[in-house]
Each structure stands twice: as structure tokens, then as C-alpha cells.
Design brief:
It contains six helices and six strands. The chain is of the alpha+beta class and about 150 residues long. The chain has a single domain, classed as Aspartate Aminotransferase, domain 1. A six-stranded antiparallel beta sheet has the order 1-2-3-4-6-5.
Length: about 150
């Protein structure tokens, strides 16, 4: 049976992972500005701008803003607002450094093995930094070619 909803996704996880993913999802929801939709996409929870709001994406899919997944060796939080804006990335990394927290961070991905290693208040702050209109504007600027 294919997993098609966020609830089915959460129910499919082992207890420890489900608790962690639910806690991070709640931190995302707490900071998320109005206009983003929560969906299950690409095998993970995704908060995105619906095509009805912004259909002009490069791949015809809703514009993803935050995604959250339980993967084989870790959990991943994808913060596209950090990826798309160097100022936000610097802010995020400095906030971690001020707290003496070292996380495994890719361009937009924050990988963590235990919930305790991810500061949930910082997650809430990070996702609150772009309204839908601001994120669309940042996306459009990133797509401009010379």
C-alpha cells in the first residue's frame, strides 16, 4: 500500500522517529506564515506554495519551502529559505554557533539523528522568515539568467 498522506507517513515510522518528526513538524507549523500548504510529496512532509497560488515553477510542481523526512541513517529538515538567501543561511549558522551546536548541514538540508540535537525554536524562527510573497520573489530572482 502506497503512503499518500502525512498521517500515513507518520504512522509508518518507528516510534522514536515518529515522535521526533512530529515535534519538528509542530515547530515548522508554529512558525510557518499563512499561505503554505502541508502535503506529502517526494516521500516526505512538505510545506509548499500550491500551484493555485504560484503555477510558474520550473518543474510544474508546487514550490517547496520546507520539507521533513526520516531517512535510513538520519532525519532531514530541508530549509529552502536558507538555501535561497545567503543572509538567512548566515543567520542560521551564526545562531547555531552561538549555542555551540554543530549540525550536519548541506545547502538546504539539516541532518540530525536525535531530536535533542535540533533546536526547535530556531526551526520555528527559520521558517517564519519568508512570507509566501517574499519566497516567490526570492525564487523568481534565483531563476533570472544573465
Amino acid at each position: 500500500m502506497a503512503i499518500e498522506t502525512v498521517d500515513e507517513y507518520l504512522d509508518s515510522l518507528p516510534d522514536d522517529r515518529r515522535e521526533a518528526i512530529e515535534a519538528v513538524a509542530e515547530a515548522v507549523r508554529k512558525g510557518l506564515p499563512d499561505g503554505y500548504a502541508e502535503e506529502l510529496r517526494w516521500g516526505m512532509i512538505s510545506w509548499e506554495i500550491p500551484l493555485a497560488t504560484y503555477p510558474d515553477t520550473y518543474n510544474g510542481q508546487p514550490l517547496a519551502y520546507v520539507s521533513l523526512a526520516s531517512q535510513k541513517n538520519h532525519m532531514s529538515l530541508y530549509l529552502m529559505g536558507i538555501y535561497s538567501d545567503e543572509g538567512n543561511r548566515s543567520w542560521f549558522e551564526e545562531a547555531l554557533e552561538e549555542r555551540s551546536i554543530k549540525l550536519d548541514i548541506g545547502k538546504s538540508c539539516v541532518r540530525f539523528k536525535k531530536l535533542e540535537s535540533l533546536p526547535l525554536d530556531l526551526v520555528t524562527d527559520a521558517v517564519s522568515r519568508f512570507t509566501v510573497d517574499e519566497y516567490i520573489d526570492a525564487y523568481e530572482k534565483s531563476r533570472v539568467t544573465a
